[in-house]
Amino acid sequence: MTSNINDTIKRLKECIIQSGYSYEQLEKRTGISRSSLQRYANGITSKIPIDAIQNIAGALGVRAEYILGWDDPASPNKETITSLLRAEYHMNEDDIRFLTDYMKLSSAEREAIRTAINAIKTIKGADQRPES
Fold it and tell me: What is the pLDDT of residue 113?
């Protein structure tokens, strides 16, 4: 294997570890067998099909270009984030816009939002308690 493929394998394995997904979960997300995913990530297979890298990258929320060493850093693009939010959390456009707006707030503004959410949860919890 050349150092180029070694770097690709290293980045692939790092992305898998950082994702927190098991190989079983990745198999379900990508349709690539667990054993193939493990061979790719451990460098046992030196020839990883480009479509497999694209598929794995999409499932991990990173750009295939990063895994291949063509692009830094591993940060996902807006389209990848949006599609992950839709797929994983069933968020609609309004939810995604809210989350995007939230990320633009200062830490003090975010804390105020969290306080408001906790107050709503408390009120909601009080409404759900049976009366004595």
Answer: 93
**DSSP annotation string for 6-20:** HHHHHHHHHHHHHHT
pTM, entire model: 0.54
The verdict on domain 3-75 having CATH code 3.40.50.12370 is no
pLDDT digit string, tens, across residues 30-43:
999 999 999 999 98
DSSP string, 33-102: -HHHHHHHHHTS-S---HHHHHHHHHHHTS-HHHHTTSSS--PPPHHHHHHHHHHHH---HHHHHHHHHH
DSSP 3: H
Domain boundaries, the chain: 3-75, 92-128
